[in-house]
Specification:
Radius of gyration of chain B: 18 Å
Strand content of chain A: 25-35%
Distance between the termini of chain A: 43 Å
Strand order of the largest sheet of chain A: 6-7-8-3-9-10
Helix content of chain B: over 70%
Largest interface: A-B, 27 and 20 residues
Number of helices of chain A: 11
Number of strands of chain B: 0
Radius of gyration of chain A: 21 Å
Oligomer: heterodimer
Distance between the termini of chain B: 22 Å
Helix content of chain A: 25-40%
Structural class of chain B: mainly alpha
Largest sheet of chain A: 6 strands, mixed
Number of strands of chain A: 14
Number of helices of chain B: 9
Chain lengths: 281, 215
Amino acid sequence: MFPLEVRSLSKTYPSFRLKSVSFSLEAGKITGFIGRNGAGKSTTLKSLFNLVHPESGTVRFFGENFTEHEISIKCRVGFVAGGTDYYPRKPLHTITGVTKLFYHDWDDGDYRKYITQFGLDESKTPSQLSTGMKVKYALALALSHHAELLILDEPTSGLDPVSRDELLDLFMELSRKGTTVLFSTHITSDLDKCADNILYIKDGAILAESTLPAFSGSYRLTEVAGDTLPPALKKKAAGLRRTKDGYSVLLQTADTPSLAVETNPASLEEIMIHLERGVNA
Amino acid sequence: MKQLLKKEFLLSVHPASYLFLLLSPMLLIPNYPYYVVFFYTSLGVFFTCLNGRENNDVFYSAMLPIAKRDIVKARFVSTILMEAAQFLTAVPFAVIRQKMPIPGNQAGMDANIALFGLSLAMMGLFNLLFFCLYYASITKVGKAFGIASFGIALYMLAAETCDHVVPFFRDCLDTPDPQFLAEKLTVLLFGLLCFFLCTATAYRKSVRSFGALDL
């Protein structure tokens, strides 16, 4: 049973379409949901909770259909959309005092533990917190009702490198304790550090769903000097980009033996940039 | 619902809504369109919804383990409670106004039982217009309030005009209590009925619209 299983999720906007998105999450693992801005990450995450209404598709949390078991599922899931951006002028203790009323398994001991661990001052308001502290507060709330699955939309966006690193450490610690984490980001270095699996969305469609090593290993990079690209190479290229001296070409690892070119491993960032740029550089 | 109401009053209801309750003594102004006192209650509802938009209240609520329709229900119940509070705090001042040794209200309806009945109908009309529009598009709070307040402004204008030109209003309803008590109680009952019918219709429509809304 998957903590989250999504099948054929589709949603059409005038200028954007989510195209039959399907994926599942492995329990206790960290999955990075990547894609450039506007690729459909937030729409997908909002669709999971019916915040936007998909035209078709099913969403199952812990084997249960979301629409039929919405309330019990929400008790087991924490959704953090970019930190605490609600009630910016209310003290944290007031927000917590209200939030905990809705969770039957709220654990005040755990809440105190996380507040102390994250160095949060409950007399402050969200508007007085840094971006990183807002995310940590939202996490403290989610963890205090024992969320088994954490879904975070761009949690590291806007954080300084140290805060980002601290947050990623926290994700890894939670994962070790059995919490499943899905977080969207366009900062690929975050995923290099902590992700087990990758979910890659491009133009509203899932381009890849795999483990991080398998995804990175399925591509190689080669550099070509000069202005002309050999036709055979161009034909096989998964992505191209101009460099100072010529071209950088992303190839599928399976294609490299037939091309007889020298290749190097590709980082997640290089893969994403090449795939997004396409083959028309 | 108890938790949701606690959430409404601790996090969502705009502080000005409570201050507007202090405007009930406006019924002591010798000559004044007293319906305005109840218009302030509507202004409080608008501030709460506007505040909610700025504070991402709906998103916070939507992520709580509750059904989407309960978000609407809580807002309706808190609004009804605030409207009832305005109504109840106004009653003693209406009684005092009637005992004041000056003539009745020359600007419009006296502060009497009929005024409360007609004001209840006005608040029901506001709930119907405002919430149906608000829950169809929660970001357009200003538009919803603009249309709803225009609607109740027309209502007030019509009611005060009737008070001057329609004999039943002028000679029967616009009199000190307990004169024409049966007629006034009928108007109060009519107002109460209008209030509940309009509010119930608004609630049903709002639940439907909000359920289908993409946040």
